[in-house]
Amino acid sequence: MDNTNTDNPYDVLFERSLAVIIREYGFDNIELSAYHQFLDISNTILRRLLLNVKNFMEIQSRTEPCPADLARSLQMMNVKLSSLQQTYNHPIKHRLRSPDRQTETHPMKLFRVTSTTNNTSRKHRPIYIPDFLPEFPDPHTFISSETYADLRKDYPRVRHLLADQRRALQRSLVKFKLQTNEKLSVINTHGTNINDYYLIKYTISPLPYLSALLPQDQMESESTETIEDETVANISHRTKSLSATDDGEM
Amino acid sequence: MELEELRQVTRSFVLSHQTLCITGVSFDKRCLVGYTELTLHPLVKNFNVIKLNARQLTIYAVTINDERNVEFSYDDPNIQILSDDDPRRDLTSFLKRQQRFFEYVDPDEGNGELTIFIPLSLQQQEQNSSTTNDDNNNNNTTDIVYKVTIDFSLEHPENGIHFFVPDDDAKLSRLSRHLFTTGHDARLWFPCVDSYCEPSTWAIEVTVEESLTVIASGELVECTTNNELKTYRFYLSTPAPAPFIGLAIGSFESVVDSNTQEITNYCLPGLLTLLTNTTSFVHEPLEYYEELLNASCQYPNYKQVFVTEPHAECIPFASMAIFNVNLLYPSTVIEATWHSRTQMAFALANQFFGCFITMRSWRDWWLLKGLALYLTSLYTRRAFGNNEYRYNLNQDMLDVIRYEREENPIRLDFAPIKSESDITNVNNRRGTMMSSQYLEVAAKKAHLVVRMIDDFIGREIMMQILNKLMCLATTACLKDAPLSSRSRLHISSKSFSRVVSTLTTKDIQALLTQWVYESGCPRLIGSFTFSRKRNVVELELKQDTTIKGSKKFLGSLVIRVQELEGSFSHTILLEDSVTKYELTCHSKVRRNKKKKIPLISGDEVDMDLNQMDPECPILWIRIDPDLKVIRELQFEQADYNWQCELRYERDILSQFEALEALKRYPSQNTRETLGTVLDSSNCFYRVRIECAYVLTHIANSMANTWTGTLATLSFFRRVFMSTNSTLSSTNVTTSSTNNLSLTVPSANIVRINDFSNSQMYMIQKTIPQAIALQRNKDRVCPPEVINFLFELIHYNENSKNRFSDAFYRSSLIDSLSNTLTNIGLTSTTTNVDLLLNHTLDTNTKRIFDEILLQLNYDKIIPSYGFCVTCSCLRVLHKLNIISGIPIDINVFYEYASYGMFDRVRLIACEILVEQIEIRMNQDVFEYIFNLITNDPDYNLRHKIIQHLCHHPPFRQNQTCSLNNPITVHRLWSLIKNFAYDNQIRNDLVELYQIMFGLSRPNCLPSLNETNEILIKDELDDVSDTIVDIDPERLSYFRLARYADDTKAAASKLASTSK
Lengths: 250, 1058
Hints:
heterodimer; A: mainly alpha; 8 helices; B: 37 helices; 32 strands; globular
């Protein structure tokens, strides 16, 4: 395929559509020679196909090709019609990830000055080092010391952390909403302007029952479907457990 | 039997079949257009006028047997009831007039708003046919059939049908538009015989847009589509009276019950998962009732529709029921289960007694209501357990007693008042004129009375009687059953007692006289002494008849004595107001205290008898242990007896009685007993919760000498909080332990939530509220408790829980509000800054901050039913009232405005009402009145008025800035305007009575006497207010009304059926 012949609109279109198909299969880059090879192959295949179609058409003494001609020619070229159908029905969805996008995640390393490498030891140099040479730099720069981060994960601490996070989240969410939404003063100020107490103004909804009956506060926990399955089994158990301590007769 | 019943009803015809056809529905214009065709069989010889019920309708034309444009007149006296402004403004005359107007249109008196005059040509035909048939007496009345067709339309209905049309044009909002019947006032939406004792078969045909679904009483026989319009045809072969015809139209989503194909549930778009969850159990009560009554439900199917803004939570109709959408709940919410299921079981019970077998008149209202509630409670007892059942029963009884003592006497027989002097309160009237609060308590009493009947004749016979009634009614539903047999479809107090006396030899008349025909309930005061010499218990029972609403009770009463040798029951006869009894004792005083003591339940327990009086073998005595009589009880026994009773008696009612009594005995022993019961895991959870409250009560009354932490607090720490791993192993017995927490070192942090054991959940939820009520010597809540509550809120962690913690969180907020006191609050400063930053108690400030945070957070991430918001609003109100924080009233206005969730609105409105009560705020009063007048949600209007009745700004004769003529006029005009909503009008009348009394309000100037006489003359004759009818004809119809004919016809009919 001659690359200089790009003025030909057919060629331009063909090249582009082929490029699109290739891209569809997930190649973001391709070498030019390989691409040209692709072009030549495709061109040849198409030419062959059209030639076959033309031949069939002539055999049937028709002037215009019909779908049957095309089908027969494809069959002759050993292409299964069903595979065409499949290609048509299942467009390419998966893309190869270009390798240069993958980033390695390096585990975080904690560097810490160990207690043994204190100032005095740093100043103490081996005797084979002449005095005029400068001192060793700070050990941080060259010692990969062992870490003793406070990673105790006892229950109260975890709970404490969790609760603090949750409360902080609540507070900041409320603060954010108060700043972005209209607000309503809670305190009757009697004209004074000292006021830190606000409520988010409510936006009237036409169907208030929807938000009330379909609460969102359970969403964060597991997927709801498994919950439902479990609960259906548990409903009877629950009502029974309520009457578990029953006794006495009426 | 039938003859007598026909005499009671003076209608001149029998309705055999009615066709209701709604040809057009418009949501934008809020109107219905349609026609109805009634098939009537005259009962009298000169049948020349038909009276039907129809209100707020436009009647276009009436056709009888193809005779078009028949003359008719339409006259609704209830519209005019106050249209001519009565300057007297007194309720006595108003009530008298209202009752007369009701009688004037009462279908059971042969009256109605719509009068149709049968043309002479038709009358002649009739006479001809009757003369030809004269020899054959049996058929002459039944041969003639009138087909009355009435074209009507209904526009902007105030009641009867409710259109829910959201304002905006979003897709979901358009999909959520729907309409439904709001109650049993059939005359408000189509012309009919609006009586409970005129059952007929029904054909209902509704044409709507294609996207809409129609649900109506009966079986869907056909559904055709034509030009984007869909026509639904229903046929109800089981005769039902007009009030029980239900209709709902909207784009409902539906789910068929997976167990029973006959049950279908409908809900608004977007709520399908909730619907599936909520209705998953409905087949259970149905199967239970059918098994219990040994009769099957007579309707071919049953539909449940969940709609917004219905006038009541649950409105049963023939073969369907309409519920409030708020009853739907997701599977993660625990609390909603009990209430929703009870409501649905109640609606189902009505498919047997209530809608299928109906009341003959409003006087028999109690019987049907009682039977339906009785069936419901039998089901809930089976579903939720005996303890829950007995607890509810006791609560109902307490409610009834409280109402009779404090408010009005309850007479279940709603007979009309005879003379003006009988009007002692607004509720002493016809059934249609009762206030909703009265009806609510009366329903509870009705249930208790039916339960008494059941107790009197025995469960088995009771079921036989109900089965007999069902069987009789079933025969009336057969295709070829004569019309007269349809009287079996309604029962009255009299017919019921007759059935009872024929099936058993027992007569329930005395029981009915005591509890139904008369009001009041006895108050028993009892005490006992033990005579060692004769080994008898000397029991003295007094009846206090001096207090309000009391009534002497004569009859038998069960006394249960727990002795050392076991439990013994004695039946005594109450004959006088003071009676002494000697009950022989079966036990001897023991020296050997090691022996086990047998209880009524069959258990044998060890008891610590050191505290006991060594001379007396009586452990405790109970009077009427099974609530067989509606009574108020005050029984005296030593604190040791009560402690024993609480600790060892297994009946929860007994434990509640003991808890109530122990409040009076603050002592170390009581404290220990309460602690033990609180801790015992085999006790019913409600007992344990109540125990926590009593413990707080005891602690408060012993505040000066109290040492150590509250047992409740240490109990909570031990059971629900993480502790040392050595301790936590003991928690396994009390369940609700979490695997995580077992490995945990010390530090008191509440465990992550696990609500899989609902009893423990309820305890965990409620106990903080009880703890929060504790007060120290200075009458304030100890800081230890407040910190404890804040820690609970801080460390609440629900991410690993299968259930929602919304109600738990709201309960914690309620607990915070329980800690608030006004002690030590001396500042009356108006400087807000000074108040908030300096004068205010730090803990109160902390609570205030927390409430604002939770309130805001709930707005961003709503909890189920906004329950956290509701609790927060209540606390804000309390902070305003008790702690003096000047909360802006606009906050409550905001939450009360239309467009909020209705429970939140209701809470906000209740707060506003209470603000009026405390602050006498004119603006708020105006706001509330505007809500009552204009709000689109009728249920809210009802609830506001009811709350106003509980918390009126002032009572009769109290001086108050609001007690002025403007308020009188305002309220009077409200009463005037609610012409179509009887229930609201009745509630308003009750409010009027509470605020101004029955006679002319004091704040009004006295009337000119001559003027008064004039008014009296003008109003005394009802017919004066009727303008449309030719007075001559009217008087003719009224005087000659069926006087002789009815009897003759009835006897003929009776002889035919026999």
